[in-house]
Amino acid sequence: MSAAYELATRGFTFLRRSLAPARVMLLREAIDRMQAEDEARYGTAVLHGMGQLGALRNLCDFGVPFEELLTDSPIFPLLDALLGSDYVLHSYDGLVLLPRNGRFPWDFHTDLMPLRGVAFPAERTPGINCLYYLDEVTAANGATWIVPSSHRSLLMQPPPERLAARAIQAAGSPGDVLLFDSRLWHCAGNNTTTAPRRLIKALFCQPWLRPQMDYSRAVRAEVMDRLPIRVRHLLGVGVAPPATVEELRQSLAAGRVAQA
Hints:
The protein is an alpha+beta fold. Helices cover about 30% and strands about 20% of the residues. It is built from 10 helices and 11 strands.
């Protein structure tokens, strides 16, 4: 079964051992630095109160290893096949599940909640989540619970207990990448160990969906300037609608905006 077919039918697939150990180590070290800086800047109590402790945002603006993950990754041929050529970055986060923390079974959700109940043709995928595993991810340290094929559901809010009964845990090793349809119902597990569980989440979506952040402004100019054109497009550069009549007319003349 191909990865594309598995993702389309079951809603998820794994790319095993996709990142080399040395690259995983660099990303893990960068996540640890970012976590320490985040806690020093905001304070653990404040972050905990906001529900943001361990949620590290805007990774592309925090170091070359994160930039390179948007430039060189084994996920892109699959994304190109399923999302087309114009998809953009919806969110790019580090997710650190700390010891004695977890969200199962009460926090089942999709990452495109506004699209709940909306039917799409089978060949159309609005978004794909990519979770890069930086640690050994097990049931004990909070492997994500996923509900196979639930991306096809049109229910607005399935009861958590029913989702939990049908869910499986997506365990994996450092360097693995879990890809799943962003409409798939899922939930972080519970970390019962004494060590954090670290991963990187990159969600890519169709250009008509609004990203979590305006990355075209959130990423510093000196970072943006060294990124390839394709990555700048992922970050939303040149994706915004025309802001002036002149820009609109130029866009219409170039055939990039359909006229009624």
